[in-house]
Amino acid sequence: FLTGTGGDIISFSGIAAIDVVQSGSNTLFRVGDGIAGNIGFGTGAVLITLANTPFTSADITTNINPSNIPIFKFS
């Protein structure tokens, strides 16, 4: 997966909130509840694992399909 301008695009449908969690060199996208830092943060079902790829809030504008953007919370 390539982040940044000209990189890959992820599209989500029917998902209201996503917790983005770094796990070593990987980034996990997990079903979230839209609340950062609560006891359940980062414990939802895994939607995507980006292997050896950091993903930051800056990547949302360039790598997430703008037609359906859930609430993203980062650890």
Written account of the structure:
The chain has 75 residues and is mostly beta strands. It has one domain. It contains one helix and four strands, in the order βββαβ. Strands 3-2-1-4 form a four-stranded mixed β-sheet, with no helix packed on it. β1 (17-23) and β2 (26-31) form a beta hairpin. The radius of gyration is 12 Å and the shape is globular. It starts with 16 loop residues before the first strand and ends with a strand. The model has no long low-confidence stretch (mean pLDDT 94).
Secondary structure topology:
Layout: E1 17-23, E2 26-31, E3 46-50, H1 60-63, E4 71-74
Parallel strand pairs: 1-4
Antiparallel strand pairs: 1-2, 2-3
Report the sheet with the most strands, covering strand number, pairing sense and barrel closure.
Answer: 4 strands, mixed
Oligomer: single chain
Could you estimate the helical fraction of the residues in percent? under 10%
Number of domains in the coordinates? Answer: 1
What spatial order of strands do you see in the largest sheet? 3-2-1-4
Please report the number of helical segments.
Answer: 1
Order of helices and strands: EEEHE
Tell the overall outline: globular
Structural class: mainly beta
Write down how many β-strands occur, each being a DSSP E stretch of 2 or more residues.
4
Mean pLDDT rating: 94
Overall radius of gyration: 12 Å
The separation of the N and C termini measures: 20 Å
Percent of residues in β-strands? 25-35%
Runs in which pLDDT lies below 50 for 5 or more consecutive residues are none
